[in-house]
Design a protein that fits this description.
The protein has 249 residues and is mainly α. The protein has one domain. It is 84% helix and 0% strand. The chain is built from eight helices and no strands. α2 runs antiparallel to α3, α2 packs parallel to α8 and α3 crosses α7.
């Protein structure tokens, strides 16, 4: 049962990414939806789970402080470590965008890995809890695939060809699709306390808030009709909200 769920997470993520690749000409709309989906995952999935898992040891202000820490960590990585303020050449700017795309896609892949870990640990508690967590993960794995492809496609410009960008996006999509499978398999060999997992989820909640608000959302609105992209962002938030709610029923 657990192995079948792990395989399902792979195909759910893969299908989402292939969808984004197929409709690349509507990338601004996909990015708008992705921004809403990433923010929705942070608010409706990661944050509530982090608070719930931390109950009994960490109160809500501690968890939200860890969320803020995750946001700041990603901010520092993005603005100070990856930023080159005195470089104006097109090639260097292209490399800068590439590295930001890798950082975002890598973060999504690690989150997907933790999704798999969450599924495995939930099944260690009980089959019922495991099934609920698995449904929740599957509902947003499709969006994870879209988000991964969107981040890579929108990173890098200039001399980077479209075919090369698609190949790179597909490679990262495979990484993101395999990640939850590995996460599930890893839990067969160790156990992790719920409080520790809660703090990890809080860190990634901060990461996702930054990615959605500072990366995907501005890019989706750049040079495109605001009404359409805004509508797609709202739709992304709504889809994740109802999907997670239905998964918890």
């Amino acid at each position: 049962m657990l192995i079948l769920i792990a395989i399902a997470t792979f195909f759910s993520t893969l299908l989402g990414g292939l969808f984004a690749l197929r409709f690349r000409d509507k990338l601004h709309l996909i990015l708008g939806f992705s921004a809403g989906a990433v923010i929705g995952v942070a608010f409706f999935d990661l944050l509530p789970e982090a608070i719930e898992l931390g109950q009994g040891r960490y109160d809500v202000p501690v968890v939200t402080a860890v969320v803020a820490l995750g946001f700041i960590i990603y901010l520092i990585l993005d603005r100070l470590i990856l930023f080159h303020p005195h470089v104006d050449s097109e090639d260097c700017q292209n490399e800068h965008h590439h590295r930001k795309g890798w950082l975002g896609a890598g973060t999504l892949a690690v989150h997907s890995f933790l999704d798999g870990v969450a599924i495995g640990l939930a099944f260690q508690v009980s089959s019922a809890i495991g099934a609920i967590v698995a449904v929740a993960v599957l509902t947003h794995d499709f969006s994870d695939g879209i988000n991964t492809v969107g981040l890579i496609l929108k990173s890098g410009h200039g001399q980077t060809g479209l075919i090369d960008k698609k190949r790179e996006a597909f490679k990262w999509l495979l990484v993101d699709a395999v990640a939850p499978v590995l996460g599930v398999l890893v839990t067969l060999f160790f156990t992790l306390s719920e409080t520790s997992l809660g703090l990890i989820l809080a860190i990634f909640c901060g990461f996702f808030l930054y990615i959605g608000a500072s990366e995907l959302l501005p890019e989706s609105h750049h040079g495109h009709p605001t009404r359409l992209t805004t509508g797609m962002t709202v739709l992304g938030v709504a889809v994740l909200y109802f999907a997670i709610k239905l998964a918890g029923v």
